[in-house]
TrEMBL record:
Domain GCF C-terminal positions: 1-161
Family per record: Belongs to the GCF family.
Record carries keyword ATP-binding: no
Subcellular location: Nucleus
Cited InterPro entries: GCFC2-like, GCFC_dom
A GO cellular-component term linked to this record: nucleus
Protein name (Swiss-Prot/TrEMBL): GCFC2 factor
PANTHER family reported in the protein's UniProt record: GC-RICH SEQUENCE DNA-BINDING FACTOR, INTRON LARGE COMPLEX COMPONENT GCFC2
Primary site of residence: nucleus
GO process terms (BP): mRNA splicing, via spliceosome
Domain of life, per lineage: Eukaryota
Family matches, as Pfam families: GCFC
Length: 266
């Protein structure tokens, strides 16, 4: 905006001796314009135009806020009411989006096992839409208060919606991909200053899911080794020889060992 650049040049301190900068009333022009004109305009746009689900809009808005706030130099005890109003509106819009735009249906596992089914495709679209919103919410880290961002992104979005889907997604590449994307959204600085060996309280349930996932994988590896061992086959053959066929059939069905069904006829 040409008029804004003109005000910036007018308020530029480069040509003012350092000893006179604090007393120069011209230095107050740009902060006043930002407070009275720019920030209220941005707040109105956030209220009526900004879509928190749009990554491009969110990135542009975050960059704009960073640029404007950098130019809004305040004294130590001075508060910017317009900035507070803007941040409150940003939080309100994100909260509204989480409450109204996020919907991840839970279907029976048998319904979504077929990845080509309409239910499975719809559930996946809704999940990734929520992940996109999580990523956009966390872009505000460093601008909006950290406790507010963690409440919106982790408590309200991750734990309330995304985690339920993860818990109902069978172990496998799809689950890993989803977990990877969630972790990729998290700001690294949140974990740099943790003094204890524990993670953030809001991530405890997510960490429990990852731990349970590892246990399931280890169990599968162990069972795969066990069920393909010669000792297992020998024991099953003993059961076949004593005609405990129902025991063998139940065992094979329970652990999905169809490749051993031929033993029943031996």
């Amino acid at each position: 905006m040409p008029w804004f650049r003109a005000i910036e040049e007018f308020s530029d301190t480069k040509n003012v001796p350092e000893s006179k900068r604090d007393d120069d009333p011209d230095q107050e022009v740009l902060p006043k314009v930002i407070e009275k004109t720019i920030l209220p305009k941005i707040t109105a746009l956030v209220k009526s135009v900004w879509d928190p689900l749009s990554t491009s809009q969110t990135k542009n808005l975050v960059q704009l806020c960073n640029n404007i706030f950098a130019k809004q130099v305040l004294s130590k005890n001075e508060r910017s009411r317009a900035k507070e109003d803007l941040m409150n509106m940003v939080v309100l819009r994100m909260k509204k989006s989480i409450e109204e735009d996020v919907f991840i249906p839970l279907y029976p596992k048998s319904t979504v096992e077929d990845k080509s089914s309409l239910c499975s495709k719809f559930q996946e679209r809704r999940f990734w839409s929520a992940v996109k919103l999580l990523s956009n919410v966390l872009l505000w880290d460093g601008i909006v208060r950290e406790d507010t961002i963690r409440d919106l992104g982790l408590s309200k979005l991750l734990n309330r919606y995304l985690l339920l889907n993860l818990l109902n997604t069978p172990p496998g590449p799809d689950n890993i991909e989803k977990c990877n994307k969630v972790v990729a959204c998290l700001p690294e600085r949140w974990f740099q200053d943790l003094k204890s060996e524990s993670t953030l309280p809001e991530l405890l349930n997510f960490c429990q899911h990852l731990l349970q996932y590892i246990k399931v994988l280890l169990c599968k590896i162990f069972l795969s080794f066990l069920f393909n061992s010669e000792e297992t086959k020998e024991v099953l053959l003993l059961l076949v020889k004593v005609k405990a066929l129902h025991v063998v059939e139940d065992f094979i069905e329970e652990y999905k060992l169809e490749h051993l069904k031929s033993m029943i006829g031996e």
